Amino acid sequence: MRCSGPARVHNEQRSGDVRYADGPTIECDLHVAADPARVWDLVTDIELPARFSQELRRVRWLDDCDRPTLGARFEGENHHPLLGEWQTVSHVVRLDAPRVFAWVVVDEAGRFGGGPADPERPGSTWQFRLVEEAGGCRLTHSVRIGPGRTGLSLIIDRAPEQEEVIIERRTAALREAMLTTLEGIKALAETPADDGR
Question: What share of the chain is helix, strand, coil (3-state, %, to 5)?
């Protein structure tokens, strides 16, 4: 499916057919006319997405980390009208500079049920991927929901007969947020930095 503007969405299951157990997946990409090293610096800044998000409010490194390393953890503070406020913990699971930055999100506090937090069964898996392309790079942002429980699980529990509709609404909101994040990164990357980079 193509979106308006330079960003596009692809690799997404057909709306209305997807259940939580299917691991709903969204992948969006766009071309960024900037040095891939500059784009990499932006996508590995874990605080950056909060600038563009309605849901993610704040992010901070844990365990005395201050930059992405394999296995590093960071905390996210979130807010949603249906769920209120909650925190998550993310684990960096892939760091292939300057190509792939991926992390899994777990419910460390157990707010959404499902037992102890397990990075092997995350609530979601997020990734930025960069591929050099003429005049810059192709930047892809993706998410896979599940298999662990999330706030979406709680909403489905309240109305299981509406699972497909609930997932369709959630993936639409995620898609919009991801495209906003991509556009924000593109704007920052394509704006000359003060240091002349």
Answer: 25, 35, 40
pTM over 0.85: yes
State the total domains in the chain: 1
Handedness of CA 171, 172, 176, 177 (dihedral sign): negative
SS in 3 state form for 55-120? CEEEEEECCCCCCCCCCCEEEEEEEECCCEEEEEEEEEEEEECCCEEEEEEECCCCCCCCCCCCCC
Place of tokens 């769920």: 83
CB atoms within 10 A of CB 165: 12
Per-residue pLDDT tens for 39-65?
999 999 999 999 999 899 999 999 999
What are the tokens at 141?
């942002």
Local structure of residue 7 (DSSP, 8 states): -
DSSP 140: E
Does residue 55 lie in a domain region? no
Contact 152, 83 (CB under 8 A): no
Angle, nearest 10°, between helix axes 36-43 and 163-190?
130
Q: What is the pLDDT of residue 17?
A: 77
Domain that holds residue 175: 8-48+94-190
